[in-house]
Specification:
Blueprint (H helix, E strand, L loop, with lengths): L40 E5 L11 H4 L3 E2 L3 H12 L5 E5 H4 L3 H11 L3 E5 L5 H12 L4 E5 L18 E3 L3 H13 L10 E2 L13 H4 L13 E2 L6 E4 L2 E2 L18 E2 L2 H15 L3 E4 L8 H14 L4 E6 L6 H9 L2 E9 L3 H6 L6 H13 L3 E8 L6 H13 L4 E6 L7 H8 L7 H6 L14 H13 L5 H11 L2 H13 L9
Parallel strand pairs: 1-3, 1-4, 4-5, 5-6, 9-12, 12-13, 13-14, 14-15, 15-16
Antiparallel strand pairs: 2-8, 6-7, 10-11
Helix pairs in contact: 2-6, 4-5, 8-9, 9-10, 13-16
Length: 502
């Protein structure tokens, strides 16, 4: 739930989380900067490798760098509104640290900088906002993080505005107001130190247009799961399910579907213009509207589109005829949110699934020729070692080709966070302090050995004889020999005698 606080004072602050120590940007001659004909706008994604990651280090460092679709859509919306002097700055893909980002922005001379973040990735986002502010630009912070902590982000003096909800509509309206020299009030979804604009509602992506990819280092993006070059897409938005560990923005609670023609059209452009070999769909649940998926698959086949693709789904939304249609249309992998192998914890997670559904879905996908990727969460609140072992046993028993084991992390605004606070496992104000700049300690694990459990699960799954053939096949198909072998070697080196404790 969105937190509301009194309006924050604009008086100078020297707090540890602010940016008041930054040098003021030199004054620019001529007319007031906001009255120039068109603004120069930078959209920034900075590093998000932080202490509150759910992934173990050995995997996170090798998983890859994926394009940021949200900034691409905002870029398209800005162009449609007449703002063409816009750049996207993706520092993980460019290999830039904070100083490199500052120099790039200083050379570009932006009037407005938008920075996207998640809550765990906030330390990197604040660094980006500091770099942007040092150039004299106005700075807006957006992303799913801001739904809960809108006003609190304004503790950082380097942040002028916070966007809540749909940045696709907020950014063009803010840019227009600044260009006209008007105070940006009355913009839905824009929060300032004097004004709260609530949350901007979801828009139909098909009306916005495809995300802008021009100017991005497309050849620098990679995934340990896919051959290069690859790309990401969104064909639908929203999720009606209520898993207790998942944070949802207000815009996530409604569903929006792009038409099959629009989806296949973008897939075709990615193959023809960018030479993409594999597309990763980043919908919440790709198969939520099964009739639409069947139409997409039929259109891919009818047009003779040859491109690999993968998508996320649930184990209760993949009937066998649909799996066969997807396999025939180029689907090579499905990412299943399995989460756990213990029935009691599945119920506490509010997954609305069971072990039989999990086994049936993964087995059916395997029979259809689609590889299975299972997502699991270990170290759940009060998870026993026996319950943990059930998760590892399930992952190794069903025909999965890949698995990821995350540590349970109670994100703000989730039922898991509420339950963890009530159980005394984490401080109630941890995220409040984190948002205001206390980046020195990770939120507590919900069981003491959660990190060791995740590492042991990875080793148990990947370092077994049955995985040799699937891993060699994967590396041959994707060309990801180095990243895959480095990850396996890292897991092997970290093998501990304590694994048998699990």
């Amino acid at each position: 739930m969105r937190k509301t606080l009194p309006v924050i004072s604009t008086s100078p602050s020297t707090g540890s989380g602010g940016c008041s120590t930054l040098a003021e940007a030199p004054a620019r001659p001529g007319l007031p900067r906001w009255r120039r004909r068109k603004l120069r706008i930078a959209l920034v994604r900075h590093h998000d490798l932080c202490l509150n990651t759910r992934q173990i280090t050995q995997i996170q460092r090798r998983a890859g760098v994926l394009p940021h679709l949200g900034l691409g859509y905002i870029h398209t919306a800005l162009k449609s509104a007449g703002f063409h002097d816009v750049i996207q700055v993706d520092t993980p893909a460019l290999g830039l640290d904070s100083e490199g980002l500052r120099k790039l922005l200083a050379d570009f001379g932006p009037d407005l900088v938008g920075v996207s973040t998640t809550t765990p990735g906030l330390p990197g986002a604040v660094e980006a906002c500091q770099a942007a502010k040092s150039t004299g630009a106005k700075v807006i912070l957006g992303g799913p993080h801001t739904e809960v902590y809108a006003h609190e982000n304004l503790f950082h003096e380097c942040i002028d505005y916070v966007g809540v909800g749909e940045g696709i509509t907020i950014m063009p309206e803010l840019a227009e107001a600044l260009e006209q020299g008007e105070k940006p009030e009355g913009i839905r979804g824009l929060v300032t130190r004097e004004h709260d604009g609530g949350a901007a509602p979801m828009v139909n992506l098909e009306e916005v247009g495809w995300p802008t990819r021009d100017g991005l280092p497309m050849n620098s993006y990679y995934s340990i799961m896919a051959p290069r070059p690859f790309a990401t897409m969104i064909s639908s938005r929203g999720c009606p399910f209520k898993c207790s560990f998942c944070f949802k923005q207000a815009v996530d609670k409604k569903s929006m579907y792009r038409s099959p023609e629009d989806v296949v059209g973008e897939m075709t452009e990615l193959r023809d213009r960018w030479g993409v070999k594999e597309i990763m769909f980043y919908d919440d649940v790709f198969t939520l509207h099964r009739g639409r998926v069947r139409e997409i698959c039929a259109m891919i086949r009818d047009q003779g589109l040859k491109v690999r693709w993968e998508a996320p789904t649930r184990v209760d939304l993949v009937p066998e005829p649909l799996l066969e249609a997807m396999a025939g249309a180029g689907c090579v992998r499905l990412r299943f949110g399995i989460e756990h192998g213990d029935p009691e914890i599945l119920q506490r997670m509010r997954k609305e699934s069971d072990i039989d559904k999990i086994e049936r879905a993964v087995t059916s996908a395997h029979k259809a020729g689609i590889k299975g990727f299972g997502y699991f969460i270990v170290g759940w609140l009060d998870e026993t070692r026996e319950q943990f072992r059930r998760t590892v046993d399930l992952a190794c028993r069903i025909p999965l080709d890949y698995a990821s084991f995350y540590t349970a992390t109670p994100l703000p605004g989730t039922p898991l966070h509420t339950e963890s606070v009530a159980a005394g496992r984490i401080p109630a104000d941890y995220w409040d302090r984190f948002v205001q700049g206390e980046f020195d300690a990770r939120i507590g694990y919900l069981v003491p050995d959660a990190q060791r459990r995740a590492q042991a699960a990875y080793r148990a799954f990947f370092l077994r004889r049955e995985m040799v053939k699937p891993l060699v096949s994967h590396m041959a198909a994707t060309g990801q020999w180095r990243n895959t072998l480095d990850g396996l070697r890292s897991l092997a080196r970290s093998t501990s005698n304590t694994d048998r404790d699990f």
